[in-house]
Design goal:
Strand content: 15-25%
Number of helices: 8
Number of strands: 20
Number of domains: 1
Largest sheet: 9 strands, mixed
Strand order of the largest sheet: 6-5-4-3-2-1-18-19-20
CATH topology: Metallo-beta-lactamase, Chain A
CATH architecture: 4-Layer Sandwich
Distance between the termini: 48 Å
Radius of gyration: 20 Å
Shape: globular
CATH class: Alpha Beta
CATH superfamily: Ribonuclease Z/Hydroxyacylglutathione hydrolase-like
Length: about 325
């Protein structure tokens, strides 16, 4: 059968079009927890944490809504940074909405007591229905379309610098350690996600002293384009030494109206050379206007909110755009 000329031209043009989109990252509002969805062109998805349980399945619903926008029909890799309820609490409810193939974590919870044990055992029950991957520093997650390197896990950090990193960090001279923190936060699985020349760091709730091991006296991580502000923007993380080592062009703070987003971290971010903007999921009530981003860069202004998200679209050359779903404001960052 001979096809009309117009159809032949359309088919020929289709074969020359790019087959894949760019990397999309959704920073989902889970009210001071974490849920970050990566949808690369490779067709597999990575979700870092699931937010809270309860709240009438609020967080699972918001994750599922973002997944639908991204064209994600299943979670190929669910990375649980650590076993606190604002990070792992939503697993059971999310599993009702989306299939989860691989469960990635640092192993068993180090916390004891009834609440901690119930939280971990609930997660463990769902983990048993998929494939479990226990990671250690230096491991790679085989997410198609992404290069995901584990830089911290189980209280340990990478021993050797990542490719291209390892330069001395002059800001380490002023570092002062905090009192050691126990529990799950120092156990956080931290990753550097790379898509072509674009790099993003997400360290979960990794603590101040553990950050030192990553960037002092030499910067083992290298610079990044974007940084997910650690621990929702609390001052037990986010040292100046870490921020200066990473030198991101944009930071995204997954805070709540009254959780995270502290004034001290805002000051550290504001004083970080090269950082053009900090974007926030919530206006931090305690900080007032002087210690929050300007309106265009905040997804949720009111304490009682609609769960608006921030979306990042990254290109292989390192350029990226951030978009605010509340007001459709966009800002592009050149390579």
């Amino acid at each position: 059968m001979k096809l009309p000329g117009s159809v032949v031209l359309l088919l020929a043009a289709a074969t020359t079009l790019p087959a894949a989109k760019n990397l999309e990252v959704y920073f989902i509002d889970v009210e001071g927890g974490q849920a970050t969805l990566f949808a690369p062109p490779g067709g597999e998805s990575l979700l870092i944490d699931t937010g809270w349980g309860g709240f009438n399945r609020r967080d699972a619903g918001r994750i599922a809504a973002a997944a639908k926008l991204a064209g994600v029909k299943r979670i190929d890799y669910l990375l649980i940074t650590h076993f606190h309820s604002d990070h792992v609490g939503g697993v059971a409810q999310l599993a009702e909405k989306l299939p989860i193939r691989n469960f990635v974590d640092h192993g068993a919870s180090v916390e004891t007591g009834k609440a901690a044990e119930v939280l971990f055992n609930t997660y463990k029950d769902y983990r048993s229905k998929g494939n479990h991957i226990q990671v250690k520093p230096g491991d790679k997650l085989p997410v198609k379309g992404l290069d995901v390197t584990v830089v911290s896990a189980g209280g340990e950090t990478i021993a050797a610098a990542l490719p291209g990193a390892g330069q001395p960090n002059p800001s380490c001279a002023t570092f002062r350690k905090m009192a050691p923190e126990t529990g799950e936060n120092p156990q956080s699985v931290g990753v550097v996600v790379q898509y072509g020349d674009f790099r993003l760091a997400d360290l979960g709730d990794l603590t101040w002293n553990k950050e030192y091991d990553l960037v002092c006296p030499a910067n083992k991580l290298g610079t990044v384009d974007a940084f997910v502000v650690s621990h929702h923007g609390t001052e037990s993380s986010n040292s100046p030494q870490l921020l200066r080592a990473l030198s991101p062009r944009a930071a995204v703070e997954e805070d709540g109206a009254k959780k995270g987003g502290t004034t001290q971290v805002w000051k550290t971010l504001r004083e970080t050379p090269g950082l053009q903007q900090t974007w926030q999921l919530h206006f931090a009530v305690a900080g007032g206007k002087e210690n929050n981003a300007a309106d265009p860069f905040i997804a949720n202004i009111d304490e009682v909110c609609e769960g608006k998200w921030l979306k990042m679209t990254a290109l292989r050359d390192g350029a990226f755009t951030l978009e605010n779903s509340r007001n459709q404001y966009q800002k592009s960052y050149a390579k």
